[in-house]
């Protein structure tokens, strides 16, 4: 659980004008963000009373927030452990990357057809930013997420975008970024450059192929880390 000293960073729920709904949203956003940043790692037990005290809330909005997160799959109720941040096993990680390869490959294909020159140029700028973040894996991870989020929007398909955004919620459960692994940051940056080049060439087949290869490479690195941790 996060330590109580982190509480001042969270606006007090007792502030004038806050409703029960906004208090529930505050609790939801706090826990969700903590999961995404890794402050609440997979397997961390979530206790209503501790979160309520941390946030200066009653237990009701915290309970509502945890129920919402459970429905979204970020939190699970395990027998004997109570509510914990969801842990992904090897099978689940494999399924996640299979779907990511299919969906992101499709997004790249559509982006090669439908993205405007301005959008492709923006994606190029994001990819180029990787070179300035060498040796900063956490910042690279943020830029990496921004790159992929931008690629999704370049596809101009609202249903694909919604599905990919949902998939990204599950990606938060994978744990620390693999960009800390020697060589992976350089490889990932190079792959991003190749993806953008395919979009600039307006080549849907090439864009999809390179993007699929990028996701497969990321999966191999992730799987290697998981196996070494066994």
UniProtKB/TrEMBL annotation:
InterPro entries: AsnC-type_HTH_dom, GntR_C, TF_FadR/GntR_C, Tscrpt_reg_HTH_GntR, WH-like_DNA-bd_sf, WH_DNA-bd_sf. It holds the Pfam family GntR. It comes from the Bacteria. Residues 21-88 form the HTH gntR-type domain. Keywords: DNA-binding, Transcription, Transcription regulation. The keyword Transcription regulation applies. SMART domains: FCD (SM00895), HTH_GNTR (SM00345). GO terms for molecular function: DNA-binding transcription factor activity; sequence-specific DNA binding. CDD domains: WHTH_GntR (cd07377). This is DNA-binding GntR family transcriptional regulator. It comes from Pigmentiphaga kullae. The lineage of its organism: Bacteria, Pseudomonadati, Pseudomonadota, Betaproteobacteria, Burkholderiales.
